[in-house]
Amino acid sequence: METVKNHFLGDIGVMLGSSMRHITRSMDTIITVTIMPIAFMLLFVYVFGGAIQTGTDDYVNYLLPGILLIAIATGTSYTAYRLFMDMQRGIFERFKSMSIARSATLWGHVLTSLVSNAISVAVIILVALVMGFRSSAGVLSWLAIAGILALFTLALTWTAVIVGLSAKSVDGASAFSYPIVFLPFISSAFVPTESMPPAVRAFAENQPMTAIVDAIRALLSGQTVGNDLWVALAWCIGIMLVAYIFAMRAYKKRV
User: What keywords are annotated for this sequence in UniProt (predicted)?
Assistant: First the structure.
């Protein structure tokens, strides 16, 4: 059992290293992922921020959690794209003839997404600090924030795996993130939900982005998180588990 486990972990390490080399050779992927969220942050803080009433003095502090989710949603779309291209190039067919764990290839892409999105998040937080973002969060709060963002990344990445394995065209694989990127705009990410019309508010308050944003925002400001943390974790873990099951089914069907 220990030998099989070590073999599996070793295969994942090889796949992760291979995927990360592609990322480092093409840094435009990370640059592209970070540019759009940073542009949104600049636009809303310096153009719209003065007209938006959030009950806080520093709008960048209010805005940052939603920007991080948009960055992660954008970044996971590259997982779907890379998987689709691997399918088209017959990469998975080649691995079938090799002594390698079948799911190691998928895990390599998933962990690559986790690492690359972590880099993007770090860059965006640094830009936010330059723009005036400040946090009273302690070490434990930052660890909780990192955990939530990691679970959110894994949930979206496994969903992207389904799309990458099932898409019929490169455009279909790349368009995966569009609706997810749009969701933070109908949440508490940019404005309080109390300012929304009743129907929109009902949707905003009961979709996953609002709970995740509110939990991260409370942790960043050193406030009591309350039920938002557990709701956010439930959404992330639930989506991740369901997506993982369907991703493995799609992988077995295609490969």
Answer: Cell membrane, Membrane, Transmembrane, Transmembrane helix, Transport
Q: Amino acid letter at 178?
A: Y
186-205: average pLDDT: 92
Domain of 39, in residue numbers:
2-254
Residues 6+ apart with CB under 8 A from 226: 218
Residues 6 or more apart whose Cβ sits within 8 Å of residue 103: 248, 251
Residue that is written with structure tokens 């959690």 in the block: 65
pLDDT band at 102 (very low <50, low <70, confident <90, very high): low
**Residue whose C-alpha is closest to residue 175's, from 250, 109, 76:** 76
Assess contact for 220 and 141: CB atoms under 8 A.
yes
How much is the mean pLDDT over the chain? 82
* HEC assignment per residue over 109-177: HHHHHHHHHHHHHHHHHHHHHHCCCCCCCCHHHHHHHHHHHHHHHHHHHHHHHHHHHHCCCHHHHHHHH
Both tokens assigned to 176 = 């995966």
**Residue type at 107 in one-letter notation:** W
Count of domains forming the chain: 1
Which pLDDT does position 238 carry in this prediction? 96
State the Cα torsion 230-247-124-64 to the nearest 10°: -30
Task: Look at residues 147, 127, 111 and name the one whose alpha carbon lies nearest to residue 31.
Answer: 127
pLDDT digits (tens, 9 = 90+) for 26-40: 666 667 778 888 998
